[in-house]
Write a structure and sequence with these properties.
The chain is α/β, with parallel strands linked by helices and 285 residues long. It is built from twelve helices and eleven strands. The strands form three sheets. A seven-stranded mixed beta sheet has the order 4-3-2-7-8-11-9, with helices on both faces. It starts with a helix and ends in a 9-residue tail after the last helix.
Amino acid sequence: MRQDELRRMLEARGLAPLSRYGQNFLVDPALLSVVAADAGVVPGERVLEVGSGAGALTAELLAAGARVLAVEVDRGLAAWLRERFAAELDEGRLRLVEGDALAAGERFHPEVEAWWSQGAAPRLVSNLPYGISGPFLGRLPGRPLAGACLLLQREMAQRAAAGPGGPDYGPLSVRLRLAFELRLGRHAPPQVFWPRPEVHSIFLHLRPCPDAASPAEDRVLAAWLRAAFTQRRKRALARLPPEAAAALQAQGVAAGARPQEIAPDTWLAAVRAAKMICSHPDDPI
């Protein structure tokens, strides 16, 4: 749907883009037409789309043969999606969740959580609202996932994909790198959106790692990283539990090392080594 068509549709229903929901609709037909292919969507695949908006990307995913779970918090837009995709909803090719995609406790909306566990690992394809992108990404490690293609604010994507030593490298990038192979894809300038944001965007592609951290390992890792990165300029080991500091030193980490200097694989090796020295494999670290 082009910008003029989208504007007329919204005005006819008394709707308008809402900044509180981070609504910047993707309106470039050429870009929309390649997203499903770039994401690797195959017919019959389960796809989660968060922030479906007016349904432009939803239509492309359905055209690619995906079975889509669409999540939209805006009540007016959710009503429009039900109208626009009435046939697909009746056929079961589309399911719509009206509400916030994120729930407390690092979880998703209950309907999303239930859907996630009811079949094969899903693929994520979304033009994510900027305001939820960090918390959304932080909920992905440890979950079964076929892959993801997420349109993010450029700075957020760079932070997520950052490597050791840089200013953007932090707890999120460590955890994501231990769960997925990350790749930055197509650039999306402001003019492909309506309303135009003041920032540039880029697609972040995720592919599951073969030796990813387990959910239990990721929980331990997240706690260690929160402690270590509290003050980036201070020594990492000084703020960690003794067993965590000892495990990192056993991996060759110097006592004065800063957290941003420690590679993801070293963090994971330390978590796994610490688990091995517990009195029981299932004991908390």
